Amino acid sequence: MFTYMLPVFTNVLADLKEKLISQTDISAAENQEPWVLSNDEVYHFNWPDLYYYLSLNGLHNSAPFQSQYLEVLQVIAF
Questions:
Q1: What does the DSSP assignment read for 6-38?
Q2: What is residue 73's predicted lDDT score, i.e. its pLDDT?
Q3: Would you say which domain of life the source belongs to (predicted)?
Q4: Which of 6, 22, 42, 57 is the most buried (most CB within 10 A)?
Q5: pTM of the predicted model, to two decimals?
């Protein structure tokens, strides 16, 4: 179920982007400077990543999410 839900959520978010976010904010997000991450990797903002991580946030209490990301959750919880 988890693997089927993510594409649905990301597609819905992509379809709603221009209805929920002003064109000014869309342009600002797309034209911002890249981020330099702690490992010196350069990250450029992109909409698919945003949709993916927003979708994961909505699924964080589901059993499939917790079983797939159990190690990550344990590290984050200290």
A1: HHHHHHHHHHHHHHHS-HHHHHHHHTSPPEEPT
A2: 59
A3: Bacteria
A4: 6
A5: 0.72
CB atoms inside a 10 Å sphere around CB 57: 10
- Residue 50 token pair: 């945003």
pLDDT of 75 reads: 60
Place of tokens 């903002």: 45
Burial tier of 51 (Cβ tally within 10 Å: 0-12, 13-18, 19+)? buried
Give the tens place of pLDDT for each residue, 13-70.
999 999 999 999 999 999 999 999 888 999 999 999 999 888 888 777 778 777 777 6
CA dist., res. 19 & res. 45, Å (int): 20
Buried b (16+ CB within 10 A) or exposed e, 10-48: beebeeeeeeeeeeeeeeeeeeeeeeeeeeeeeeeeeee
